[in-house]
Backbone:
């Protein structure tokens, strides 16, 4: 082979490897974007779950408060009947 043919073959190989590298880089960038999208989706879902947990905690506090108020009301009713029975 003469030098021109060798240089032509080398040029073709280098061009092909550059095309392959460009394709791989494009795929890597695409995968990186997909990973970022998945991270954002997971973050959004975690925020939604956290919001639901916080809402559940608020509901639980309200239920406990209502139970406490019902117990107080029942205690007052019992005291009323006890006092009323003492008077009679």
Residues:
């Amino acid at each position: 082979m003469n030098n021109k043919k060798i240089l032509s073959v080398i040029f073709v190989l280098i061009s092909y490897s550059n095309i392959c590298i460009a394709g791989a880089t494009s795929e890597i960038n695409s995968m990186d974007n997909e990973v970022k999208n998945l991270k954002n989706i997971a973050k959004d879902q975690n925020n939604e779950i956290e919001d639901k947990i916080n809402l559940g905690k608020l509901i639980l506090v309200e239920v406990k408060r209502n139970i406490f108020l019902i117990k107080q009301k029942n205690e007052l009713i019992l005291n009323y009947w006890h006092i009323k029975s003492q008077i009679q």
